[in-house]
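User: My collaborator sent over this chain with a note saying "see what the structure looks like." That's all I know about it. Can you take a look?
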Amino acid sequence: MKAIVCNEFASVDNLRYQDMPDPKAAKGHVVVDIKASGVNFPDGLLVQGLYQLKPDFPFIPGGEVAGVISEVGEDVPHLKVGRRVIALCMLGGYAEKVAVPATHVLPIPDEIPDEEAAALVTAHATAHHALKQRANIQPGETLVVTGAAGGTGLAAVQIGKAMGAKVIAVCSTQEKLDIAKQNGADVLINYSENDLKTALKEATNGKGADVVYECVGGDTFHACSRSMGWNGRLLVVGFAGGTIPEFPVNLALVKGYSVIGVFWGSFTQHQPKDFQDNMKELLTWYLQGKVKVIVDETLPLEQAKDALKKVLGRKVKGKMALRP
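Assistant: Without extra context I'll predict from the sequence alone. Here is the result:
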């Protein structure tokens, strides 16, 4: 099969489009013939050696796919060859085929196109897990979403609205804010034109935010950390801005809020049943029109470098996808 292969931790330019052995379905696994692969910010960090996961070489990046089951291993009674599915594979998604544990495969309805199905997994599932299991967000609470036009930020806007929150979208341009508004944001803040701390104070009537979904880092994180309400939950999702901030813990003490890490990949490993329940709820919301996947662009698999550069450059509105 053809695949995008990482042979060393380096720039995405060092990735190679090459032949690799076809995967086989071990016990408890299935092989999926990939129709579309989602592209995510952590994929770009992973191949540069900047992510928590450090796979052995060579490896194929890509953590989410949609496709059709072509082989079923032993002890997988609930899945059949020919079934259309989405799959969380952690690695191996930038390829024509991938072997996946059956616990991380979910049948999908025909109404969901391949690119949207593939792109639904990581971004929406991360936001869903963050707001549901980590923040336990309640109807009527105020949710601040940074990077609100990116893949997972836009998902958090949609899911926050679906869960009854008042959503404040934080972006760097008016164009991105317009996209966030189209997806349900109630209040828009352009942090390149306004002091974010001051704007958040005004937007929350001086009370501070109940929940912040923070995926930018740097100065944006610091402004949010000073804009939390009592019993607030500051969700640490990622650092798309490139700077991992240091947190003055006295703020959490004085302002009485929690700083909560969100590592969705570990969640799927530690709580596979909750992961499956979450995905079923997301699929239901998709069919009900409560959430939707915005696919900015779909590129051929061999152009994965271009897709990753666009994601790493924060030029994507929604998600990028690849087609083998």
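A starting point for your reply to your collaborator: The mean pLDDT is 95.
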